[in-house]
Specification:
rod-shaped, alpha/beta, two-stranded antiparallel sheet, D-Maltodextrin-Binding Protein, domain 2, Arc Repressor Mutant, subunit A
Length: 289
């Protein structure tokens, strides 16, 4: 048995308004077209659906049972349509975000907060990881989007630049010069690991200046380096927003010699399009960076 949606729509309309003429008007068809569709449906199901009376179309007993089945199906379609509208309006669903620690509880948290305020029925899963872990998770489509740098080097992930962040040097309380020069790197330096993208940026800058910093410790994240500097261990290069978090404790921040910044990017799986909700969150991330 082969039934078409158009036949079902014609039958449902006729059962509702009781004439082929009114059904045709509601569907934007001609009366003969609706009558033909109903006749084709009756032949396909093998029993009459209507009694043709002077006052119009009246459902047969079998027709009433068939209409009940049709309404159940249309109810399911309406539920599907409502779900589609909800998804489009970001009224339901989830977005999975992963970001570098230096950004996760800064502008990323701010953007997520604004997104959830706009879309209170949405859920967001926020994770923190290193760049290699972010790239691996995105390649496996474990996350919808990531926030990191443009230094990707992965065929499975696209980087979409959204802004730049300024680097500063932090000094133990009371030890910062007014305008640091390259000679500050004679002091003990607290670095990021060599697989860290900020370390890559730093290494390129000091190499171009012909400077060899005296690295005494490597920290996995910038906040740890700030705390060690605050305790007097040495100087460190961090994001200016991270440095600002420790200013009230006495940690001094100064511009990097000659100025230095690095790109921030939205990272997305190359083989997968962003959902409408993830696209909106990426817009808020760009505004917050």
């Amino acid at each position: 048995m082969r039934l078409t949606l158009r036949q079902i729509e014609a039958f449902r309309a006729a059962a509702t308004v009781h004439t082929a003429t009114a059904a045709a008007q509601s569907l934007g068809l001609t009366q003969p077209a609706v009558s033909r569709l109903i006749a084709e449906l009756e032949r396909a199901v093998g029993f009459p659906l209507f009694e043709r009376r002077a006052r119009g179309l009246v459902l047969t007993s079998d027709g009433e049972h068939f209409l009940a089945a049709v309404e159940r199906s249309f109810s399911g379609l309406e539920t599907i349509a409502e779900a589609a509208v909800a998804i489009k309006r970001h009224a339901t669903g989830m977005v999975r975000v992963v970001s570098l620690a230096v950004y996760s509880d800064g502008f990323v948290a701010e953007a997520i907060g604004r997104f959830l305020a706009e879309n209170p029925l949405m859920r967001v899963e926020s994770a923190v990881a290193s760049m290699p872990e972010i790239l691996g998770g995105l390649a496996l489509e474990e996350f919808d989007l990531g926030v990191g740098t443009t230094f990707v080097g992965s065929e499975a992930v696209d980087a979409r630049p959204i802004g730049r962040r300024r680097a500063v040097l932090v000094f133990p309380p009371g030890t910062a010069p007014d305008e640091p020069g390259w000679d500050v790197f004679d002091r003990p330096f607290l670095a990021m690991p060599q697989d860290n993208p900020f370390r890559t940026t730093f290494d390129a800058a000091v190499a171009a200046a012909g400077v060899r910093p005296r690295i005494v410790c490597e920290f996995r994240n910038q906040r740890a380096a700030c705390r060690a500097s605050l305790a007097g261990a040495g100087i460190a290069m961090v994001d200016e927003a991270t440095a600002a978090e420790f200013a009230h404790l006495g940690l001094d921040a100064r511009p990097f010699p000659g100025g230095l910044d690095w790109p921030v990017a939205i990272l997305v799986p190359r083989r997968r399009e962003l959902s409408s909700a993830a696209t909106r969150l990426s817009q808020l991330l760009k505004a917050a960076v």
